[in-house]
Design brief:
- By secondary structure, the protein is mainly β.
- It has one domain: Immunoglobulin-like (Sandwich), CATH 2.60.40.1090.
- Helix content is 12%, strand content 40%.
- The protein contains one helix and nine strands.
- The protein has a six-stranded antiparallel sheet with strand order 1-2-7-5-4-8, with no helix packed on it. The chain has a three-stranded antiparallel sheet with strand order 6-3-9, with no helix packed on it.
- A hairpin with a 5-residue loop joins strand 4 and strand 5.
- It is elongated and about 55 Å long.
- The N terminus is likely disordered.
């Protein structure tokens, strides 16, 4: 009978110790996907800038802060970024921004850019990316492309 009682106490003690451990001992995990920005074909005679959005989505388990940084793309510079065409030698200037006002360039925190951070607690985090091509760039009409790398830290 004493043996059963001792085992029972050890099990309770083990449960009690597990409950007392801080949550920070378990690492957070996130699964990240991205919706690209599709500007469509560029018309150099359009009077207004072309604005479009994309989204980065992270489904996170655990607790923490998610920070997103974006690369310069093929241009190697943040201001402006540029897309290239497969049919011409033209570069189409554009940029990516942190808000719909399209004032703060979304980057890695250098050269006047900012990253975007959001807290998560076992939830889905959505970060919008706001793109803009300036109006009336003197280039050949057509399709242009750039590849941006998003670095996610949490």
């Amino acid at each position: 009978m004493k043996r059963l009682s001792t085992i029972g106490m050890l099990i309770l003690l083990g449960v009690s110790m597990a409950v007392c451990l801080p949550i920070t001992l378990w690492a957070a995990t996130c699964t990240v996907t991205a919706t690209p920005i599709a500007f469509g074909n560029y018309d150099p005679f359009a009077a207004a800038p072309r604005n479009r959005t994309g989204r980065i989505t992270a489904v996170c388990n655990g607790n923490g802060t998610l920070t997103v940084a974006l690369s310069t793309g093929q241009s190697g510079a943040y201001n402006p970024r540029s897309m290239i065409s497969g049919t011409t030698t033209d570069n189409l200037d554009y940029n990516l921004y942190t808000t719909a006002a399209r004032v703060i360039i979304f980057g890695d925190g250098t050269a006047g850019t900012q990253t975007v951070s959001k807290n998560f607690n076992n939830k889905t985090v959505r970060i919008r990316v706001y793109g803009q091509i300036p109006a009336m760039e003197n280039i050949a009409p057509g399709s242009y492309i750039d590849n941006i790398t998003a670095t996610i830290t949490f």
